[in-house]
Amino acid sequence: MLTLRGITRRFGDNLAVDDVTLELRGGEILALVGENGAGKTTLMRIAAGELTPDAGTVDRAGEAGFVHQHFLLVSDFTIAENLALQRSWSFASLRTLEAEAEAIIAATGIELHGPSRRVEELSVGEKSKLELIKAIAKKPRVLILDEPTSVLTPTESAELFAVMRRVASEGTAVVFISHKLPEVLEIADRIVVMRRGRVVLETTSMTAEELARVMVDAPLPASVAPAKNILAIVGVAGNGQSQLAERFRDEHPDAGLIPEDRTRDGIIAEMSIAENLALRSSTNADTLINLFSIKATSANQKAGDLSGGNQQKVILARELSRKPRMILAAEPTRGLDIEATAFVHAQLRAAADDGASILLITSDLDEAFALADEIQVIYRGKLSERMPPDVARERVGALMAGIG
Amino acid sequence: MIDVIVHALPIAIVASTPLLLAVEGELVVQRSGIINLGIEGMMLTAAMTAVLAQQSTHSVLAGFAGGIAGALLIAALFGLFAIRYRADQIVTGTAINLLALGLTGFIYKAVSGLFFGTSALSEVAQYAVVLIAWIAVPIALAVLLWMTSFGLRLRASGENPDAVPHVQRYRWSALAIEALLAGTGGAYLSLALSSGFAENMTAGRGFIALSIVIFGRWKVRGAIIGTALFGVTAALQYTLQAMNIGLPFHLLLAVPYVVTLLILCGIAGRVRAPEALGRRD
Amino acid sequence: MRAVAAAIAAILLLSLSALVFGRSPIELLSILINGSVGSRFAIDGTLLKSVPLLLTGLSVALAFRAGVWNIGGEGQFIVGAIAAIIASRFGLVAALAASMLAGALWASIATAMRLWRNAPEVLTTILLNFTAIHLLGWCVNGPLQERGAQYPQTDTAAVALPQLGEVHAGLLLAIAASVAAWFLLYRTAEGLRLRATGFNARAAKWAGIDVDRQLVRAMAMSGALAGLAGGIELLGVTHRLFERFAAGYGYSGIAVALLAQLHPLATIASSIFFGALSTGAGELQRTANISSNVAIFGQAVVILVLILFGSWRARD
Questions:
Q1: Counts of helices then strands in chain B (DSSP H, E)
Q2: Considering only CB atoms, which residues of chain A are within 8 Å of chain B?
Q3: Range of A179's domain?
Q4: Which among B147, B148, B160 is the nearest to A73, CB-wise?
Q5: Which position among A202, A379, A387, B50 has the lowest Cβ density within 10 Å, counted as fewest Cβ atoms?
């Protein structure tokens, strides 16, 4: 269906995709696996024609549909209007919008009712369905889904997999980008592993441990006992976590604050590391760089040039060096590799041991259970009661889906 | 008091027709996600090119065409920087205003006979423009923006440009529409209302138009109401003067701007601008 | 040094535009240069013009640095001068202080409207400019008009800035302000917070900065600088107020700030450049009968060229 040959692509200094050759076959579900920054999304965007490669060729038999990780929807418009955006250039009237929308949705076989509803009223799962409908409606030969389950409940993920299987059985080449190993093993016919821009493995059978090892060249970390004073708020992304975090920030301006979006809200990219640190911490910048093992050329390097993991370290250094009594950590390890994740967890544990109370907001259940001694679930802006980890383990799935 | 207002209304409508055209044009552009601060310079340029065209051809129609042409030139320049080069829209708009101010002032001093004393338009023509601006254009815009596929995509460009393929098309189209409208407004100002061109004659109408767009919540209905409201209150400055209220002349000149400031005060709370308005990506 | 390239490019473009009006570009260029730096008289004129430009440029630079669009330099300049002449009976220091206070207050009207009513300051500051112009008109035709009541102007101010040769002491004040602004931005915690807010207000909030208060302070300082410009221009050059007192110094500050890449010390050089342009343009009008509006046109060209070179935003 689609063949990529010798694809290379750079973004500035960063070699995102390094001489990759890959074939996408009709009727097959291919899982593209790897850590953040491995090059999966970039490669697939090139396959879909959204980006041009610096070198290599793309042989495409037909159109490629792309379901993006970050929804390309207009929140103020209705479902029907969003679908109408796909129509070709015309001055035609919009009277039949809703009927057309229902026809499009029905043809894809996905359940999404009420096309006159505004996108901002939809749940995250429904928005994700809309993105999928947009992509499938064009009957593409290749369908690429980028981390589609990161915002879905287990039930919704199962529904998605059913659709993927059906689409594949109709002859489309389906590509599923993910870093969640259990799902990959469940759905994929073929697995391709990427690391640092290159394909390191292509296989049709593997175990989770084997996969993990190939992805990062390191064994899975052993589980650790949870710390005290850490309350984890878990939930699927988009259920009110950001508002909760902002409320906390406004109520406790002196607390240690680790925001969810570290590049946009955490560091000031145009200022140096030293300046970023000086915003809240009076400790010498070089000392902090050493203490937190921040990989940088100097304290004067622009914070925006650092990798995600190192940016997070700068934020941690800035906040934790003040030894605050309360700490808010929102998705602190999102997009970080295993080493950086372990570092962040260790820092949070140390702070908790020192007596700080930590509010951890995360959509990563493993992280929540590893760190917290109390768990709450957030759904559509409302919080469940606090539970100890063993109770939470039973109920979390249902609570995250809004049941029970 | 009601008496005064009722009498002021027709004058206000005619006098604020250029303003309304500017508001309507800027509305379309902002709906597509762009802030054009340079509409002031656009109108000023149009006012001059309209006079130049009319004076050399003695045709009113040519005058209006000239005005629109001048506005299109400015729009092209603005679009080049704001759309093609993705430059900061506020800075670009400010530069455009300075450019227009300098250029028109320059030409005004170099060419004579730009001020002729009587309106170049017949009464019928004047009222035709007023009717077009206050009735035809709003209807046309409402249909275009809210009842066509083109309009849907244009509005989407202002909400989430990433969801729209070929966003630039819609933004350039919006600028062209604005040039058409603001160009007509500028031409009307110099040819009909002011009998010729004078330095800096737009006197901030562009900025007032920007304020009214916001006040009107980026809707056509709001544009009309806002402009009418402004027009009436601003016209009061003349009636107050005539009534010898005792407020000094110069302070009365400040009335339109103070009124606009008050109008901007009336937008407290959640003002839902187009999501992507002014973004550089 | 893209800024230097932009300045040169702008001058060249300006000279070339002379062709449109049937003049030789070389002739235009030579008059410009002669008229601005070609004689002792010209240099003095250039320096005099650059003082208010330096201050209004600093005003814009400081505000832009904090992420605020203060386009109200014109109005703040005017009210600063009005306050200065009223307070001049109490001495020089009082007059200067009054001009700064008035400028700060005038700017704060826009800040208040932004914080309480969500009104965009890019529009409110401009509207306040027009308001200030008419306020000035009222003053010089009414309450502040000269005793003889013949012309729309005030009496001479009670004090004046001391002279340093052909230039007035305001030059030193302006340079001092420039150094102070640099020190504030790069050597103090307040400056760090201000710049952080300008780069990324969201991240600044997450770093514990009270963004609203920061805005208030930044706008007040910005307004004070523009007000001071007006006070100095009054007490050093014109010595009395009249209509059209501001003559575009406020708006010119934008070009000055952008050419200086928003850097306080570079504003000194930038203001001299535009001062030269303005003085040279005056000479053009005198000798070649080309309207001095070329100076305004020149500012616009510089800004556009800067945008083209992609370098108006400070890159440090």
A1: 13, 0
A2: 72-77, 81-82, 84-85, 87, 89-95
A3: 2-216
A4: B160
A5: A202
